[in-house]
């Protein structure tokens, strides 16, 4: 039961972090380092492919620039 709680809690924290990044990104509050870190996180979690196309295009652009790394 404790492991289940820990897993759920960790997922909840990751979702909060993702939501915070998206809100800040959409509001224009992220600097370049935060954008790179945020998009790397979105890419690592696979969430980027569930968002609107502009996020996917931005992720691909950052990959092409070598600023984030596509994970498999």
Structure notes:
- Helix 1 crosses helix 2 (32-45) and helix 2 (32-45) crosses helix 3.
- The chain is globular, with a radius of gyration of 13 Å.
- It is built from three helices and no strands.
- The chain has a domain at 32-72.
- With 72 residues, it is mainly α.
- The model has no long low-confidence stretch (mean pLDDT 89).
- Helix content is 71%, strand content 0%.
Characterize this entry briefly.
This protein has about 70 residues and is mainly α. The protein has helices at about 1-25, 30-45, 55-65. It has a domain at about 30-70.
Topology of helices and strands:
Blueprint: H1 2-26, H2 32-45, H3 53-64
Quick tags:
72 residues; mainly alpha; 3 helices; 71% helix
Shape: globular
Which structural category do the helix and sheet elements fall into?
mainly alpha
Percent of residues in helices: over 70%
Give, in order, the helices and strands: HHH
Number of strands: 0
